[in-house]
């Protein structure tokens, strides 16, 4: 019997009349162009991309929120592979707090869904941040990674970055920009390997969930 796989990654694509990859306001928009073309006589097609390190689905490196933190190339991959818990946080208001989620079980990795449908064609700033107390609670339960389908674990206008700081305090890892629309709440195997970018403050991921035996 084949094992079901859910692709929980955004598609990297440039902006067009239908929209485009949502990017943080003021950050680098994703762009792609064909530099060598078979239809122009080249034996191969080759393209060039310009993007932010936080484009689409990505893992924050500690360097993103800690000047002395590890870069994307230096992160241990173990937190990004293994059993995880997907939590449906739709219906929560304000921020994702432990008190709002009485069904929240402990797990090594916890992914929060808060969109009914991921906003693939527009930037939205009204996401649910994750309370720093929730990160603290997860860390006490042994969690090594927290993920979200939002662009950040903190609010867009945050200057204190409380959730990121709680993650740094406990040496956890962060996944952002996941697409969890078709994923039922429950336990899965997560595989989300960040690109090995030397000096990178984040690594783009092709993230998947695989059903457990």
Describe this structure in words.
The protein has 213 residues and is mainly beta. The protein is 8% helix and 27% strand. It is built from 2 helices and 10 strands, in the order ββββββαβαβββ. It has a 7-stranded mixed barrel. A two-stranded antiparallel sheet has the order 2-3. Strand 9 (186-194) and strand 10 (202-211) form a beta hairpin. It is globular and about 60 Å long.
The total count of helices amounts to 2
Structural class: mainly beta
Distance between the termini: 10 Å
Residue share in helices?
A: under 10%
* Average of pLDDT: 95
Strands, count? 10
Strand order of the largest sheet: 4-8-7-6-5-9-10
The shape, in one word, is globular
Order of helices and strands: EEEEEEHEHEEE
Could you tell me the strand content as a percent range?
25-35%
Largest sheet: 7 strands, mixed, barrel
What value does the Rg take, in angstroms? Answer: 18 Å
Low-confidence stretches: none
């Amino acid at each position: 019997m084949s094992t079901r796989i859910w692709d929980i990654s955004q598609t990297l694509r440039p902006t067009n009349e239908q929209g485009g990859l949502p990017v943080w306001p003021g950050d680098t928009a994703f762009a792609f162009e064909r530099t060598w073309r078979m239809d122009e006589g080249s034996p191969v097609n080759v393209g060039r991309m310009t993007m932010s390190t936080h484009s689409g689905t990505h893992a924050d490196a500690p360097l993103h929120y800690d000047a002395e933190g590890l870069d994307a190339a230096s992160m241990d991959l173990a937190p990004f592979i293994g059993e995880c818990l997907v939590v449906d946080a739709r219906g929560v208001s304000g921020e994702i707090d432990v008190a709002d989620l009485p069904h929240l079980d402990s797990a090594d990795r916890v992914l929060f869904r808060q969109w009914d449908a991921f906003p693939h064609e527009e930037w939205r700033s009204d996401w649910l941040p994750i309370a720093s107390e929730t990160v603290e609670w997860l860390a006490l339960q042994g969690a090594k990674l927290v993920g979200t389908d939002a662009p950040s674990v903190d609010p867009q206008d945050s200057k204190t970055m409380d959730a990121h700081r709680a993650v740094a305090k406990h040496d956890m890892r962060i996944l952002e920009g996941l697409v969890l629309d078709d994923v039922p709440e429950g336990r899965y195997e997560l595989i989300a390997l960040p690109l090995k970018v030397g000096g990178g403050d984040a690594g783009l991921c092709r993230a998947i969930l695989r059903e457990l035996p």
